[in-house]
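tool_call predict_complex ligand=XIL
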Amino acid sequence: MSLLAGCGGGSTGGGGTTGGGNNNPPPSTATLAQNAAKHSLKVGAAAVSPYLSDTSYASILGSEFNELTAENEMKFASVAPTSPTENYAGADALVSFAQAHQMSVRGHTLVWHQQVPSWVSPSDTTAQLNTILQNHITDEVTHFAGKVYAWDVVNEAFNDDGSGSTPATVRSTIWYDNPGIGFAGMGTAYIEQAFNWARAADPTAKLFYNDYNIETENPKSDAVYAMAQDFTNRSVPLDGIGFQFHINPSFDTPANLASVTANFQRFAALGLDIHITELDIALADSSTASFNAQAKLYGELATICLQQPKCKLFQTWGFTDKYSWIPQFIPGHGWALPFDANYQKKPAYTSILNAWQ
Ligand code: XIL
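tool_result ok
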């Protein structure tokens, strides 16, 4: 794609002199991070430590973004693949990179029903699982205390059910009721336990609940809202909600955008922070029309976040199509991120930048 001639890439010589009486603004060469910072917004990407040796990857990640998260390397199966002994080498490499580039680090994720190590089994007893999970949360949060500013404590704990005014139900998982850590049949009580363990391990990290399909007002976000309201009422240490935003251009309707705005507002009214955590917009082809539709939606979401004071993070799930999870998980789809597979800026990139300029 060379549609962006004049917008990206090469040096423009620094924008000229000051005080010379030329009122034309210089062409903007500011990064996403520089524009986000003007609004006290973090702009982040999920990252993978082995890719840091790819120099283009490292230089874009370190310059365009002021925040990163581990795409996989902080998950339980990554830090403790074969035994309870945890190894943080991959995640530590991401933290070191972030610190060297003045980036914040977001932790993802402590409690999830996927990427659980195989030595953790549903045939373990409830007492064993309770100890395993408490130790895991305590060890990992302690290891990264002072380095990780926010954690996805619990990920994807609700089902995609419910309808009308009936909210979604709590997902059956090894941690909840299969056999669970001791709160089976008690709804969100096991989630509350996880947040309390995380807060005890690091009193300063912001603690998030993170999920997909909760972007708009719907039975699933209603269930998360009910939990959030209950937790904030009772001072359970919940600081924010992560909205994943794995979407495609069909999401781009006036009704959906209005619903995202209203949904963000109801969570903000509880005093919670709002993070867009895993944004990608999957396409079925790489046509100009598809890239433009994608760009429009990226820009609209960048604006919605900007306009909501509690929306503090705009994070994409990766940043280059070279390494996106989409082609593997949604066969036939891809091209979901703001940089193409050759690290060229796509229209989506410009659209986000324009929303914040
Ligand atoms: C995905 C990663 O991108 C893949 O590399 C991995 O194989 C599976 O997990 N929701 C989440 C993320 O919360 O952790 C998932 O990440 C994508 C869906």
